[in-house]
Amino acid sequence: METLFDSEIWKQIFVYSVAIPEHPDITWWAHVVRSVLRLAVGIGFVLTIVPGLIWLERRLLSWWQGRLGPNRVGWQGLAQPIADGIKLFFKEDIIPTNVDKTLYIIAPAVALAPVLYSVTVLPWNGSPDWGAVAPGLNIGILFLLAVASIEVYGIILAGWSSNNKYSLLGGLRASSQVISYELGMGLSIIAVLLMLGTLGTQSIVQGYPFDPKTGSEVYIQVGDVLRNGQGVIEAKNLTAGSAVSGYTVYKHAPTSTLLDWNFLRLFPFGLIATFVYLISMVAETNRAPFDLPEAETELVAGFHTEYSSMKFAMFFMGEYANMLIVSAIAITLFFGGWLAPLGFLSQLPEATWTVLPPFLVSTLNALIAGFWFGIKLFLLICFFILLRASLPRLRYDMLMKFGWKGMLPVALVNLALIGTSIAIQNRIDPAGTAIGAPSMAAWWSGQLIAWGIGIALALVLLAFKAAQYNARRRDASSTAIVPIRRAPVATPTAPSAATPEI
Amino acid sequence: MSDFWTDVRQIASEVKAPFVGLKTVLFKLGETKTTVSYPDYRRPMGVRARWRHVLNRYDNGMEKCIGCSLCAGACPANAILVVADENTDRARFSPGERYAVRYEINMIRCIYCGFCQESCPTGAIELKDQYELAEDNRAALIYTKEMLLVPDPNRERVD
After folding, report:
1. Distance (Å, rounded) from C-alpha B143 to C-alpha A444?
2. Does B9 touch chain A (CB under 8 A)?
């Protein structure tokens, strides 16, 4: 008797995998259903977690300020964001006179939508079927960069359409801040691209795979055992020998550790890229200490001054969702995505894979990967909140100086040095570099030369600054008498007119 | 050149400063919070806190209030109403000739200054430390004598 689980529909949607060559091709409608399910998971996750983030921020910020946060509304105050949402929902939705109606109404949507688009390429899993909303998209990072740039329009439209000069100024400041730090962010993302050679988000976490000839994503075939920069990757069919029984196949790296994550990749350069990205992501989301456009004239709220009720709620939600998304990007790019600090914790031990039913193994592996991703997200969000609790706000000119004269040159030089190192590695060991595991000789040669150039540049900069500084000091402390051109003063005749005047 | 390196050290310490700040704030998680969880814990007031009035009694149960109206006279807000009557042998409420038949304080008009307490010759009216007096209609905030009197110490207790 055929149960639901044996039906072709079920198998098309849940059993067959794109990565196992023995499985039949998946029909187009099954792809549609899968996409809708993945989208539900992704967007649902983000929209559900945002109220949780609001709660987390209020409570954690309060604890760091030495007070309790809201803890009355539900258990430990968890229903507080719901209460806030209900309040915002019932507030009067005011549209001021003489605003540009169309732009005014679509601005919050333009601010919020790109954030939700970014969810599509962020992976919570290594599975080529269920790992992200668009798993295996090999231009993931490009998509992210493109979408991140659209968010700025929401801010500009809000500031412009509000018919309020302070909103306009706030909007302009916010947007100029965002685009300034997008440069640093983009350059550090490109550093990761350079180190790994792929734009696909799942590949970036796993350090593999891409086809060096075509540059496109490669699904490892079942049974492949490869060594990459992170450790051994194996593709497994969960119940070996049966062509149509595995639910999905995961590619994990059981022998990888925290030291294999991208933030430590080419030693100081990956770390520099990580720092540049972390600082830029705080500036991108207009969070403290870069939140001058939001809090400056503290009576008015910058570009969202004239917004009330649901439109304001959308801006508010957009900020928290943006925080979540940029943290997820940071984790994907630099902190090993869904992998545990000790690789063998990332999935169920292999011995159990033959014992338990396959769907259970898949589900548990997915939950474990999701758990690690969630823990890292949580820690990064706590880092955001810690920054808000402890650092004073940067003044607008300091902020712009930091972005253009601090982040951008550092990221650019970092990128150049990474390029140098990898070019040298490639020259010495092309095959190894292509799969991300250069030989020791190649790695060390590339790194030493890059370090040497970096230190030389740093010394040159230091010497230049020293010379500049000394010149200025000499000018300031010089005692040379410099004649000043002054209009002749009528001096009264004095009895001591005979004494020469200095 | 030495001044340059002093300033480099200065800049290094300035760069280190935000991290020191982050660490300081991070460790504040372990400290106890200063917030008082209000309805679960009410902070004790000072001994002379002036809030809700009470009309005291003697230990034998008699009311201390003799209906002299000095409190009404002293009240800067005219919040007290006192109607006095004579004690008879049959109905004796207070030691002495008079007692207060009607004693009402309008808690909205009252400014909690304590003049009534200062002017009372017998120590009948006192301002205690109960401050949770909020109501949502004016009528409920006119406190009558029954509301103000402390319970009779010699009443029948069901313990």
Report:
1. 88
2. no
Length of chain A measured in residues: 502
Say if the Cβ atoms of A67 and B33 lie within 8 Å. Answer: yes
Q: Which domain holds residue A84?
A: 4-470
Is A82 part of a structural domain of the chain?
Answer: yes
- Total domains in the fold of chain A: 1
How far is residue A173's CA from residue A292's CA, in Å, rounded to a whole number?
9
Structure tokens at B58: 């003697």
**Is the Cβ pair A67, B35 closer than 8 Å?**
yes
Pick from A272, A197, A267: nearest CA to A448: A267
Q: Is B24 on the interface with A (CB under 8 A)?
A: yes
- CA–chain centroid gap for B154, Å, is 26
Identify whether A168 is part of a domain: yes
Provide the pLDDT for residue A39: 93
What residues pair up with B149 in beta bridges, in sequence order?
B55
Per-residue 3-state assignment (H helix, E strand, C coil) for A286-347: CCCCCCHHHHCCCCCCHHHCCCCHHHHHHHHHHHHHHHHHHHHHHHHHHCCCCCCCEHHHHC
Residues of chain A with pLDDT below 70 are 1-2, 19-22, 207-255, 295-301, 434-436, 480-485, 489-502
Q: Is the pTM of this model over 0.90?
A: no
**CATH hierarchy code of domain B53-148:** 3.30.70.3270
Closest Cβ–Cβ partner in A67, A389, A473 for B3: A473
DSSP state at residue A139: T
Q: CB-CB: which of B4, B25, B31 is closest to A389?
A: B25
Cα–Cα–Cα angle for A280, A285, A286, rounded to 5 degrees: 95
pLDDT tens across the length of chain B (159 residues)? 567 778 778 888 888 998 999 999 999 999 888 889 888 999 999 999 999 999 999 999 899 999 999 999 999 999 999 999 999 888 889 898 999 999 999 999 999 999 999 999 999 999 999 999 999 999 999 999 888 888 888 888 887
